[in-house]
Design brief:
five-stranded antiparallel beta sheet; about 525 residues
């Protein structure tokens, strides 16, 4: 039957092209990973293209990704990139069956795109960052050309082998595909080995690092900061549970032996560069500080409290000659730069006004985890993380807000972002079905630098009722609260609001996170049974 035969031939051709394209893409990525492992892991094509996508994504889309995927947003992005590459690889593979050079050229074009993305990254170290993408593209193009050649052998060759599908050498194609897959897998495994080895020194150093005792230990946590309510967030967030929001697709494994912190810029009369050993030798302070991400929606999870150990940042700035604007200083913005090129801008006045702004080296009794900035990160209590909490910091430049826009400000977020007063209901959860009778409503509230003076709960449209507050550990930490009530059967809406230490009541006005943090009252709906 001619129609069936034609369909079968077309189907087989599509399968051959798909397999050739996917194997070529696999080869390109594997060779690129191998070269990146030898040159610089952060220059791998998926990482640099993903970073370029993040840099060019509108703030609203990034906010949506964080809300929707949480800390899995980077994995979703990487998976999306691989899916797109896979689809393009299939298209190029099918194209190469008819136009081998065009298919191979398409692979090279994507290598050029990867190289351009690598060179455009803020942490690029030069032309070497383009090598992984270029090498991968050349290998992928060669693989596709060879596979396409085997998949479109002449009819004479085919007839000699007795193939029933004219126009290709099945045995030769499968042999070439097998060799290509094995070689690519080996290159990928070797690349993964080199990448892991590059970070091994940092892992070993962190494991062996013994943090000094603080010259100024954290005040003892008052009795009663932790309420005994099931489902209530713990006062201290374990490191493994602490939220992570950043743009790093690959978590930096910083070589402490070569790491340096440079302080320079406007108003700096004595520029300095510090090693980690020099920072650890200074008098350290230990403080309980609650961090909040500006992407935290009302009632959201991107907040955590930890005990931090670090160097007072104001001391370092004074040491290099910096004065705050209120005392005649020339700089009103401190720009912190990360090893991955991220830039954050903090008000110099806030950093030097007496609050416990620190360069942290420890978190909850251990060296900083890699996810949270090892070896050193910056913290400024009372400011959202995007203007204060630079991880993997390596450079501090004193400048002005008029002279420089950091990463997030360029993307339409506010220049200055003090944390807004917020309260959250942790239990019962939304749409919970508690039994009728006495239930406990509980949660946390925060207003860093102001503290929490009052938390009130409202059931349906009833009056506001004062809750019982846990002991307050300080103005820079969150505060737990609870309220016991007699729950009657039916659906009920629970709403919470807080009053900060200045007497300011949390606003009801609902706003999104952009440009300076969400506001509004948190509420949950439950059905009492």
């Amino acid at each position: 039957m001619p129609g069936v035969s034609s369909f079968r031939s077309t189907l087989f051709r599509a399968v051959r092209g798909t397999l050739a394209g996917l194997l070529a893409a696999f080869t390109a990525l594997a060779v690129a990973e191998l070269v990146a492992g030898l040159v610089r892991p952060a220059a791998g094509p998926v990482t640099v293209v993903g970073g370029a996508v993040i840099d060019r994504t509108p703030a609203a889309v990034k906010d949506f990704a964080i809300r929707t995927f949480g800390e899995n947003d980077k994995a979703v992005l990487q998976l999306g990139i691989l899916v797109v590459l896979g689809l393009l690889a299939v298209a190029l593979g099918i194209l190469a069956l008819s136009y081998r050079r065009a298919g191979a050229a398409g692979v090279v074009l994507f290598g050029i795109v990867g190289a351009a993305a690598a060179l455009s990254r803020p942490d690029s170290i030069g032309i070497g960052d383009a090598l992984p993408s270029i090498a991968g593209a050349v290998a992928g193009a060669f693989a596709l050309y060879v596979l396409a050649s085997k998949a479109t052998s002449s009819p004479a060759q085919v007839g000699a082998e007795g193939d029933d599908d004219a126009g290709w050498n099945r045995r030769g194609f499968l042999a070439a595909a097998g060799v290509t897959a094995a070689a690519a897998a080996s290159a990928g495994a070797l690349g993964r080995f080199f990448t892991t080895r590059q970070g091994h020194g940092a892992v070993t150093f962190r494991k062996s690092l013994i943090l000094p005792k603080p010259a100024s230990p954290a005040p003892a946590v008052p009795v009663g900061v932790q309420l005994k309510v099931p489902g209530l967030t713990a006062f201290t967030t374990p490191n493994s549970d602490f939220y992570r929001v950043d743009t790093a697709l690959t978590v930096p494994k910083v070589d402490v032996g070569t790491w340096r912190l440079r302080i320079h810029g406007r108003g700096v009369t004595r520029p300095r560069t510090y090693t980690l050993d020099q920072l650890l030798a200074r008098p350290l302070i230990e403080r309980d500080i609650t961090l909040t991400c500006v992407s935290n929606e009302v009632g959201g999870p991107y907040i955590g409290n930890a005990r931090w150990l670090g160097v007072p940042l104001a001391d370092l700035l004074e040491e290099v000659g910096v004065r705050p604007p209120s005392k005649g200083g020339r700089a009103d913005q401190l720009v912190a730069r990360s090893v991955d090129g991220m830039t954050l801008g903090s008000p110099v006045e806030d950093v030097m006004d007496g609050r416990d702004a620190i360069l942290a080296v420890g978190m909850n009794g251990e060296p900083l985890p890699f996810d949270h900035g090892f070896p050193v990160r910056m913290l400024v209590p009372g400011l959202y993380g995007y203007v204060s909490a630079c991880k993997w910091i390596e450079d501090i430049e004193l400048t002005t807000f008029d002279a420089y826009d950091p990463y997030w400000v360029k993307r339409k977020w506010a220049r200055k972002a003090p944390i807004k007063t917020q309260a959250r209901i942790d239990t019962p959860k939304p749409f919970a079905r508690p039994a009728a009778g006495t239930i406990t409503i509980a949660g946390v509230a925060w207003a860093q630098r102001r503290g929490i003076a009052r938390v009130q709960i409202r059931i349906d449209n009833g009056p506001w009722q004062d809750t019982a507050l846990a002991a307050q550990a300080g103005v820079d930490t969150w505060r737990q609260w609870s309220y016991r009530c007699n729950a009657t059967p039916g659906g009920h809406n629970l709403t919470v609001r807080a009053t900060d230490g200045t007497g300011q009541v949390q606003t009801e006005q609902r706003t999104r996170t952009i440009p300076d943090g969400a506001s509004g009252w948190h509420s949950v709906f439950v059905t009492v049974i």
